[in-house]
Write a structure and sequence with these properties.
Elements (H helix, E strand, L loop, with lengths): L1 H68 L2 E7 L4 H14 L3 E7 L2 H10 L4 E4 L5 H5 L2 E2 L2 E11 L7 E2 L1 H8 L17 E5 L4 H10 L9 E3 L2 H10 L3 E6 L8 E2 L1 E2 L6 H5 L6 E9 L7 H11 L1 H9 L3 E2 L2
Parallel strand pairs: 1-2, 1-3, 6-11, 7-8, 7-9
Antiparallel strand pairs: 3-12, 4-12, 5-9, 5-10, 5-12, 5-13
Helix pairs in contact: 9-10
Length: about 325
């Protein structure tokens, strides 16, 4: 009896050892499989990341090579109101394409289109819509931004708002004193731009006072108008929205402030296109000129247009 009991005890011990061994083997196999799966996933993720990095590097290299390959020059002339935009575009474009030179002159809208049509420049900058005669001679109107025309007065002027009719009467000489529009009794000094200016053309057309204005001074640049109004008591002038600063006071028109938001909403009536005209379609121009227009229509270019206070063309 004792012998049989010892045999049974021995068998039980052997079985226990065997079960434990099998369990350990199963656990080891599962762990190995898990580690293998994890390693495979990590390898795949690493491979995808490497591919993504490689693709990004290829894109960067391709862009860099394209920038390096593009070379030549771009000449533009025209609107003084577009000076801030033109200079910003030229600087950013030359930084992006180091082998391209962009030169801009500011001679007035009409003079810029004349230079374009004569073949003197690649782009004619105009702060007004092109005339039919200019289009008939080959100029193509490429609108790159929308600008508002702000009516500015000397900071000491008490008036804050004018109606469209009052503004027209001031510029045609029917109203000559600020007292007539709820201001102090101070003579109004009417400042404007020279004949041929895109700003003047757009202002007079939008106000329906073309060839009817009576100016005390006709100045040849936006900066000159700003300086004259800032330093002359009782003065009034018009300038591009993007050059406004605290040296002058911008008036509300029909109760509406001159802001990009109001212009986009169609609530502010003094607005005009900024045109970069080409002789023929953009597709017919040189590679640098085509690249410039591609840049202007890109997200980067639109950000630049917005940064100088203009409204992008969507």
């Amino acid at each position: 009896m004792m012998k049989n009991l010892k045999k049974l005890t021995a068998l039980a011990g052997i079985c226990a050892v065997t079960v434990a061994s099998l369990a350990a083997c199963g656990q080891s196999g599962t762990t190995t499989e898990t580690k293998a799966d994890t390693n495979a996933a990590q390898t795949e993720a690493g491979s995808q990341a490497a591919e993504s990095t490689a693709d990004s590097a290829k894109d960067t290299q391709a862009a860099s090579e394209a920038s390096a390959d593009l070379n030549g020059s771009i000449t533009m002339a025209g609107s003084t109101s577009m000076e801030k935009l033109a200079n910003a575009v030229a600087e950013a474009f030359m930084e992006k394409y180091p082998n391209v030179t962009v030169n801009a002159e500011f001679t007035g809208s009409s003079a810029g289109i004349e230079s374009l049509l004569s073949g003197s420049v690649d782009i004619g900058n105009s702060s007004r819509a092109l005339e039919d005669s200019e289009k008939q001679n080959g100029a193509v109107e490429n609108i790159v931004a929308i600008d508002g025309i702000a009516v500015v007065v000397n900071p000491d002027t008490k008036v804050e708002n004018l109606t469209k009719e009052q503004l027209a009467q001031i510029y045609t000489g029917e109203i000559t004193d600020w007292a007539d529009v709820d201001g102090d009794s101070v003579p109004i000094v009417v400042i404007g731009r020279e004949a041929g200016s895109g700003t003047r053309g757009a202002f007079e057309e939008l106000l329906d006072v073309a060839d009817k204005c009576t100016y005390a001074s006709e100045l040849d640049s936006t900066g000159a108008v700003m300086a004259k109004v800032a330093s002359t008591p009782g003065s009034i002038g018009y300038v591009s929205l993007d050059v406004l600063d605290d040296t002058v006071k911008a008036l509300k028109l029909e109760g509406v402030e001159p802001t990009a938001e109001n212009i986009k909403a169609g609530n502010y009536f003094l607005s005009r296109p900024f045109v970069m005209a080409t002789k023929g379609e953009i597709s017919e121009q040189s590679e640098p000129v085509q690249a410039l227009f591609d840049y202007l229509s890109s997200a980067e270019g639109k950000d630049l247009i917005s940064s100088v206070g203009l409204i992008t063309v969507d």
